[in-house]
Structure formats: C-alpha cells, structure tokens
Design brief:
Blueprint lengths: L4 H18 L18 H15 L16 H12 L3
Helix pairs in contact: 1-2, 1-3
Length: 86
C-alpha cells in the first residue's frame, strides 16, 4: 500500500506521540495493539491530549472510543477524518 505524503506525515507524528506517551524505544507496527504495549486509560488520555496538540484538533465525546486509539492505523483514520480526508 502506497501512502500519500500527507498520510506519511500523520503516521510519523502519531508514532512520535505514541512512543513518547508509552515511553517506547522502538516504533510499534501500524497494526500493533497498543494495549499490549502499555496503553491503558491513563495513557490513552495522555495520548489524546498529545494528539490534539500536535494536530490542532479536538476529540469530541463521541470520538472517545477505545477502538479508535487501539492501533496507529485506527488513530490515523480518526485524525484523517477530523482533518478532512486522507
């Protein structure tokens, strides 16, 4: 699958946020279950705040679904939707 430059930039920023919040040394795979790497309710809130700041978006209450933040791919999908496309 070939990614657009815009999508590559989003993935890179998401990976950076995830690595920082979960204190990871290595980048997780795009479809790795982040809960297996330590994502829990507290770190999810920290990740949401970091993503909101990095992407200048606001996650509404309807967006706060655990599945939306379970993988890099899922996070990218909701951010792309918030930013108006892929």
């Amino acid at each position: 699958m070939s990614m657009s430059m815009q999508q590559e930039e989003r993935y890179s920023t998401i990976l950076s946020c995830v690595k920082q919040v979960l204190e990871l040394n290595e980048e997780p795979g795009y479809d790795t279950d982040l809960s297996m790497l330590g994502l829990d309710s507290i770190t999810t809130v920290n990740l949401i705040v970091a993503l909101e700041n990095e992407f200048d978006i606001i996650f509404e209450n309807d967006d706060l679904v655990v599945d939306y933040f379970s993988t890099i791919t899922q996070i990218d999908a909701i951010i792309a939707e918030k930013k108006g496309g892929r």
